[in-house]
Amino acid sequence: MAERAGYTVTMFVIDVSPSMAKTREIQLAPGPDGEEKTKEVTNLEWALEFVLLKVQEMIFAGRKTDQCGVILFGTKKTKNCINEANGGYDHVTEYIPIAQPTQQTLDLISAIKPSKVQGDALDGLIVAIQTQATYLGKKKTWTRKITVLTDGESPLNTEDWEGTAEKLNELDVRATIIGVDFDDEDFKEEDKSEQKTQNEEFYQQLGSQIEKCLIGSCYQALEDCALPDIKTVKPAAKHIILRLGYHYPDQVDDEADDGEAEKGIEISARVHKVSSKASPVSLKRFIKRGDDVMDDAEERKPDVGGAVYAPVERETRYHLRPPAQEKKEEDDEVKLEDGDAENEVPTLGDLVDAEDLVKGYKYGATWVLVDEEFDKLPTKAGIEAGVIGFMHASKFQRWYLMGEIYSLSADDKSIRSQIALSSFIRGMVIKDVLAIVRWVHADGADPKMAVCCPIVEVERDYLFMARVPFAEDLRNYTFPSLDDLKNKKGEAATKHPFVTTDEMVTAMEKWVDKMDLMEAAEDADGAPEPWFDMSASYNPAIHRLKTALFHGSVFPDLENNPIPPPHPELTKYLEPPPEVVERSKRALEKLKKAVDVKLVPPKVRGKKKANDVDATMHTEDDFDVTDLLGEDAAGPVGPSRSMATLSLKSPHVASQKLEAEKKKSKMELDDTDTEDEDERARTPGRSHLPTPDRSPAGPTPKKTNLTRQERDVRPGRIIGNAFPLEDFKDNLKEGDVVSKALKDMSAVIPEIVDESFSTQRYDEAIQCMREMRKTALQEDDIDIWNDFLHEFKEKCQRPGYKRKDFWDKVKAIGMQISLITDKEAEVHEGYSAVSELQSVQVISVHGSWWNENLTCDFLF
């Protein structure tokens, strides 16, 4: 049954009698080498672990209405509300008053020690009942819980115990009695004292008279704490208006009468969450307080000697940014010493009060100020759900759903609303339709689209509601079939590694059947049942982190008290059942043979090749043409090597014979084996046009009338590899594609450097970089250039890269092609987070002498 979240007062009644000082050995988590580890603790310390874990759960939830208190019996002194009023009930102390637990509560519980005085558990229970009743008064909606922890070795005064049981039932208290080494189904204590035997029998008799009572051993209680706990809580319902036939202002016809346009039916309803996404707890940073900021921690009693921590909170201050012309001279004369960039402290201007600031948004290179009154456009309607249309249930796609599921039902206090909503729901069922609604979940919130599904039950009718995207946010993507393969002649391929055969399909079906989990488990009667149960499947990321936090809070010394292993219920679904794996082995081997599964070796980095090798000498190593001319030279697709040789001699000769070579290549390609178009799309081929000669020896051929393929424009780009600079300038003239052109250019430049014959296209790549930097600075797309240069430099300096000499040319040019600095960006009304010092270091060429002798001013 769902519980109300929070609104609970739990009283812990703890036995601190001398018998609780008895020691025992408990098993710890295995060591790093699998060795067994144990720890000696007292019975009291063992029982307090349960209390600490329960209190930690309350702190973890963070609800102010989830409170607790601690009563000790067997203490030397007496301090409780009954003794102060009427006397009696000695050796019972109200140790921690009822309040929301904090870290200090855990410290106080950890400081509890056994005493030398025996206590009466029933006295402690009665004091807890009275303390709880006094605190809550007549709050009947609050949940009352009392947990008693004892070893049962102290004598009990059982006079009038029936009255205590009646009082617990009258106040609807949920009682729990946890005994150290109490007998249960799996454990029977040997050599038990007569006193403990009598007390156990009494506790069983007491529990039988209490309507809500649980009795168990401490071992069972700690095991249950380790079990992932999923609490079903009763969500808070919100009042909402469901509108039918209502026209919103943007839907009203101008010629229609306003009174008629807004007529409709309004149904009073209530909506609440049905599901809620669970996520791991968000971690916070804490810092140990110093002695000067202990916040009167020394006055806390008792002094448990625990460290006092405080959360690290963010503090925001606003300073004026000093203008460039007003900076001090010494700021411009900072020498480029090692470590200056990391230790450099930004210069801050005058402190500004947050109330004197105005919000602003950057539109292009202009800052647009926005008043507080215009901060957000308010919505006209309050909390509501207005039906704007219907759709057939068969046409609704599962992937339209977004977020959580809500339940929308009629107001239980309005019979008219119940009849109206029930009629509406049953009409939807008859027509087999879903309702599309405009949903506003809070006052002033942005409207959202949602879909409502009708649910008809014996007791009531209601709607399930879930958020769906707007029509503009829905994207449809189509992908070609993996089985529908065609060769270059357009004919369907029947034999191909990607085309499945009947043998493959049969082998896969048999393997899937062998892995069936629907009857892989057995119930209590031995009948087969599904192996996987959704209700018993827990998220390890959530519960394991929770266990680690709780354990670390209770046991700071993790070396001597390591985190216990995860509960078996948490890990039972992480691996398939062994019997299912065993029975599917033969089917799996047949499947591997049918589809010819092979182990894919890990990718090996390029082999190191000797740089000082005479080209005229024959070596034992094979000569790879791709090392010299790129992958085009060895591939079956594209122009022949003879054509590539012609292009090096004269671009005019290459252009005259291009058409003939294309026809010849096409005839050769038509005769090749079947290929998968999808595979070729995933691995785009290299240029089909010979690389034009970029040397000053002859004029550069024009790209007029060349097709997209001849200009070597890769899929998804607007800039080709054959004429990148011309493509870049042409696209800038066409329209608002600056960012796209810059991103494509950042991909093309490294490719033309890699594909360059020797240093043939280096100058062209430098020209492209200059133009790209200029455009990024003028169009306020500075981040694209700076990110590109960082990545390109890293690639050029990577071990084994064959074009390291290109970066030497970049460094020789200097700051004209380095990162765009904040000063340059400010001139063009843009923004850059790069300082002059950082820009110099990226392009620095003079080594240590440069760092020791030159200043920033010398660079310009």
UniProtKB/TrEMBL annotation:
Q: What is its EC number?
A: 3.6.4.12
Which Pfam families is this protein grouped with?
A: Ku, Ku_N, Ku_PK_bind
**Keyword field:** ATP-binding, Chromosome, DNA damage, DNA recombination, DNA repair, DNA-binding, Helicase, Hydrolase, Nucleotide-binding, Nucleus, Telomere
**Gene3D superfamilies registered for this protein in UniProt:** 1.10.1600.10, 2.40.290.10, Ku, C-terminal domain (1.25.40.240), von Willebrand factor, type A domain (3.40.50.410)
- Which superkingdom? Eukaryota
Q: Where in the cell is it found?
A: Chromosome, Telomere; Nucleus
Its Gene Ontology cellular component terms are: chromosome, telomeric region; Ku70:Ku80 complex
Domain Ku as annotated: residue spans: 349-485
Task: Identify the stretch(es) annotated as Disordered.
Answer: 315-342, 630-717
Q: Which GO terms describe its molecular function?
A: ATP binding; damaged DNA binding; DNA helicase activity; double-stranded DNA binding; hydrolase activity; telomeric DNA binding
InterPro entries hit by this protein: DNA_bd_Ku70/Ku80 (IPR006164), Ku80 (IPR024193), Ku_C_sf (IPR036494), Ku_N (IPR005161), Ku_PK_bind (IPR014893), SPOC-like_C_dom_sf (IPR016194), vWFA_dom_sf (IPR036465)
Gene Ontology terms describing biological process:
DNA recombination; double-strand break repair via nonhomologous end joining; telomere maintenance
The reply on keyword Metal-binding is no
- The UniProt regions of compositional bias labelled Acidic residues, in chain numbering, are 329-342
What are the Basic and acidic residues biased-composition ranges? 315-328, 658-669
On whether DNA-binding is a keyword of this UniProt record, the answer is yes
Family affiliation: Belongs to the ku80 family.
Name this protein carries in UniProt: ATP-dependent DNA helicase II subunit 2
> What's the source species for this entry?
Tulasnella calospora MUT 4182
